[in-house]
Amino acid sequence: MPWYQREVRLPAYRRGCHIVTQHVREGMPEIADVEIGLLHVFSMHTSASLSINENADPDVPIDMESALNHIMPENFPFRHTCEGPDDMPAHVKASLMGNSLSIPVSNGRLALGTWQGIYLCEHRNHGGSRRLVLTLQGE
Question: Mean per-residue pLDDT for 86-114?
Fold first, then answer.
């Protein structure tokens, strides 16, 4: 069973949740050759996270960002403040949501549900370009 690994550089996104499913698909074209397997997606950052959520209604990413800001407000009395008021809340949000996903691959496609997409959740106001490591294993 072959293994493939690639790094994908995402464009800089504004703060919020952004669907990046197409970037992941295009970053690992070998998915098309795998009948059964697993794709691991790993974010190389401590202030952005990954999630799978609804990809159809544009209100979902907006509501996700609002809920995350409610759970972890910037005015919380953090000790680590040297990188700005959005930094430590970003670390907490990233820890809560996680930095990796495992997605089944079936018949040359990501086995996502009808309404599911892969989100990059950018928790910084100006996080910059983000990198993902994609690791595919299958046959």
Answer: 98
Characterise 128 by phi-psi region: left (phi > 0), alpha (psi -120 to 50), beta (else). Answer: left
Statement: residue 2 has pLDDT above 90: no
Strand 36-43 relative to strand 116-122, pairing: unpaired
DSSP three-state, residue 56: coil
pLDDT tens digits, one per residue of 48-72: 999 999 999 999 999 999 999 999 9
The CATH T-level fold of domain 3-138 is: Jelly Rolls (2.60.120)
The residue extents of the domains of the chain are 3-138
Contact 109, 39 (CB under 8 A): no
Residue 1's pLDDT is 73
Q: Is 56 exposed, middle or buried (0-12, 13-18, 19+ CB in 10 A)?
A: exposed
